[in-house]
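Students often ask why inverse folding is considered easier than folding. One informal answer: many sequences map to the same fold, so there is more than one right answer. In these notes we will look at a single instance of the problem. The structure comes first.
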């Protein structure tokens, strides 16, 4: 289906298929469960197939019911492929023929070329490149730091330092956690110290790429003793 990028209308992704020996163009729609064709296009296939009654219920993206006139079994060819007995729904619609997921499960398309993104020549591209060049430090991809601001944590008068022992790390994560700690130290995010009054346990959260995100559990150490303005305390849940 067609879409827009940066305010520009993009053409739909299409596939040229041979249906019962007739060359036809379909819009590729991975959001459609069933493949369908408007009645006026089906007239090209009437001599080669039989339209049978159908009890399938189809709805548009807006939730409106699509009137299905019937269903036909067809042979679909694409490049070196030939698939027999694919179901084609004939509908009262004004739009294009749609190649849905039911056909995509059998007819293999060249997805590499379909999903290849071309650079759109934007008249503002030069201005964007100028901003990237002027603020190259921001777009460097390296770790950024907040400069010129000093943050102080104020503790309550009755605050008592709490030193928690490390929580056991599952054997399967031990090597990954060790590597992440080394990376954070090398990047300057963490700094080794010889002693501390406070020590918070670490929670290791596995990420989709199988690395881990290390999070300090300050809810059991520092947070209960922080002096936090009332509006921040309620909004962010400090002290819990």
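Output (designed amino acids):
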């Amino acid at each position: 289906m067609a879409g827009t990028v940066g305010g520009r209308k993009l053409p739909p992704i299409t596939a040229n298929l041979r249906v019962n020996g007739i060359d036809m163009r379909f819009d590729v729609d991975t959001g459609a469960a069933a493949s369908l064709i408007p009645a006026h296009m089906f007239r090209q296939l009437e001599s080669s197939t039989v339209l049978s009654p159908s009890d399938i219920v189809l709805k548009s993206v807006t939730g409106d019911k699509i009137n299905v006139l019937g269903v036909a079994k067809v042979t679909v060819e694409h490049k070196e492929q030939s698939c027999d007995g694919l179901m084609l729904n004939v509908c009262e619609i004004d739009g294009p023929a749609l190649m849905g997921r039911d056909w995509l499960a059998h007819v293999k398309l060249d997805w590499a070329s379909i999903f290849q993104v071309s650079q759109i020549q934007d008249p503002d591209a030069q201005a964007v490149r100028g901003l990237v060049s002027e603020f190259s430090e921001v777009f460097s991809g390296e770790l950024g730091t907040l400069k010129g601001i000093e943050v102080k944590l104020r503790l309550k008068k009755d605050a008592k330092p709490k030193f928690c022992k490390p929580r056991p790390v599952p054997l399967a994560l031990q090597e990954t956690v060790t590597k992440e700690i080394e990376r954070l130290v090398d990047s300057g995010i963490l700094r080794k110290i010889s002693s501390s009054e406070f020590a918070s346990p670490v929670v290791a959260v596995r990420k989709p790429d199988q690395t881990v995100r290390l999070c300090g559990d300050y809810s059991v150490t520092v947070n209960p003793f922080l002096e936090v303005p009332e509006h921040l305390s309620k909004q962010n849940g400090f002290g819990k």
